[in-house]
Every structure is written in C-alpha cells, then in structure tokens.
Amino acid sequence: MEQELLPIGTVVTTKNSDVELMIIGYRTVINYDNKKEKYDYSSVRVNEGLKGRESMVLFNKDKIDKIVSYGYVDESFVTLKSKLEKGSE
Predict the structure, then answer these.
(1) What is the pTM of this model?
(2) How far apart are CA 85 and CA 4, in angstroms?
(3) How would you list the strands of the sheet with 57-59, edge to edge?
(4) Which tens digits make up the pLDDT trace of 26-52?
(5) 55 touches 34 (CB < 8 A)
(6) Going by C-beta distance under 8 Å and a sequence separation of 6 or more, which residues neighbour residue 36?
(7) From CA 71, how far away is CA 79, in angstroms rounded?
(8) pLDDT at 53 over 80
(9) Which of 32-36, 55-59, 81-85 has the highest mean pLDDT?
(10) DSSP for 44-87?
(11) How far is it, in rounded angstroms, from Cα 26 to Cα 13?
C-alpha cells in the first residue's frame, strides 16, 4: 500500500536514523553531477530549522520509518494533495 502525502510540519524519522525531521516541502529536484535527482520530501532537523541549503535533508517516502507527529491539514492541503496525486503541479 502506497503511503499518502504527508502535510507540511509532519515530523518523521527515516530508516537507519533516530533524527527527527520536519517536512517543509515536496518534490524537490536537484542537479547533481549533471543529472537530476528527485525527492518526495524536503525537511529540516527538528529544533534546528533551516540554516541554509546545507541544512536541508531530502528523502523519498520509502525511507520513512516512523511518523512522530502529523502536520497541519486544512482545505488548501487537501486541494494540493489531490493535485499532486493526479500528477499536476
């Protein structure tokens, strides 16, 4: 079963790490060694926040181990979730 899109502000841990990460964005694409790498989520360490590009942690949904706390959900999130699940941006 595929995991649903998690809202901004959700705190997770990833496999092989106990560091808590807070989701701050979706579908990040970076260029690395002349190829594009796509990630489902961008995040920052809880209680540290964004200190610059190097403090951002990128990961895919299959790397999520545990959901510690769910983020804020309102009508705009439901609309965005629907659009992303249909493949539009």
Answers:
(1) 0.84
(2) 9
(3) 57-59, 35-45, 21-32, 11-14, 64-69
(4) 988 888 888 999 999 999 999 888 888
(5) no
(6) 29, 30
(7) 15
(8) no
(9) 55-59
(10) EETTT---SGGG-EEE-GGGEEEEEE-----HHHHHHHHHHHHT
(11) 16
CA–CA separation, 40 and 57 (whole Å): 11
- Region for 68 from its dihedrals, namely left if φ exceeds 0, alpha if ψ lies in -120 to 50, beta otherwise: alpha
Supply the Cα-derived Rg of the chain in whole angstroms: 13
Q: Which residue has the tokens 């926040």?
A: 49
Tokens at 10, concatenated: 């959700």
DSSP-derived letter for residue 9 is T
